Amino acid sequence: MTQVEEVPVQTQKYDSVKADTIEVGNITRSKAEWKQLLSSEEYHILREAGTEPAFRNAYYNNKKEGIYYCGGCSLPLYSSNTKFDSGTGWPSFYAPIDPKLVKRKVDRRYGMERVEVVCAQCGSHLGHIFPYEGVPTEERHCLNSLALDFKQMDI
Ligand SMILES: [Zn+2]
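That is the input. Now the predicted structure with zinc ion docked in place:
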C-alpha cells in the first residue's frame, strides 16, 4: 500500500488568533501619525469616534467566515463566530474573541449615556455596546466597518 502523506491544510489557522496567543500591547501615536496612517474616513471613525452610515458600509451584511482586525493596529478583535444579523445596518457581534481585546468606556456625548467600545491596544473607537435580547451575552457590539479589517479564513 502506498503511504499517503498528510499535507497540512494551508489556510490561516484560528490558532493564530486564539485568545491566549494574542498579546495586547500599548500603541500610542500622535495625531499626525494617525492621519498619515489612516484615510480621512477611517480617522474620523477611529480617532474622532465617528459613526458611518447604516447599510452603506462594507461588513454589515458580510456572512463570510473570518476574523475582524482593528483598523488602527491590526489586533484581531472579533470573529465571524459571534457575528449576527441585527438588522441595524452595522456589523454586530455578541462578543469579541476575548474580553481583554476591547475596552469599554462611558460615552456621554449627545445627551445620552452609551457604552463605547475601543481597541484595548491602540484606543481606537470601534463602536458602541447595546443591550440585546436573544444572543448569548445579551449585548450587541455595534461596530463601524471602517474601524475593522476583515480577513476571510477558516476558523
Ligand atoms: Zn487597535
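Residues 70, 72-73, 75, 119, 121-122, 124 surround zinc ion (CB under 6 Å).
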